[in-house]
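[09:14] KT: can someone run the structure on this one? pasting the chain below
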Amino acid sequence: MLRLSADLGGLPYSAEDREARRRWQNLLETVDPGAADHHVLAADRHVHFDSATKVDGPLAGPRLIEVLTVILLTLRTRLGAPAPAPKRRFRAEGRG
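[09:31] RB: done, structure tokens below
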């Protein structure tokens, strides 16, 4: 069993980012605390992520990275996070 716990930071204030606050509030309202991966709003108004993933076999090296990648990609998809902007490989790619 691989257990992860992370403090994702404070819930954004409406004045900072009204849409982000609304997305987090909507997500937190639908959380199943019994689910293997879930978010919790702590008393200090920080959003926490807790995960418990059953993993077969030993977790070492590349296998650990593989499992963490799958967990984080699944989480990102569930949150509806926008895809990152493509990175420029060369300085000239930014010129039009």
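[09:33] KT: thanks! The first helix runs from residue 14 to 29.
[09:34] RB: yep, looked fine to me
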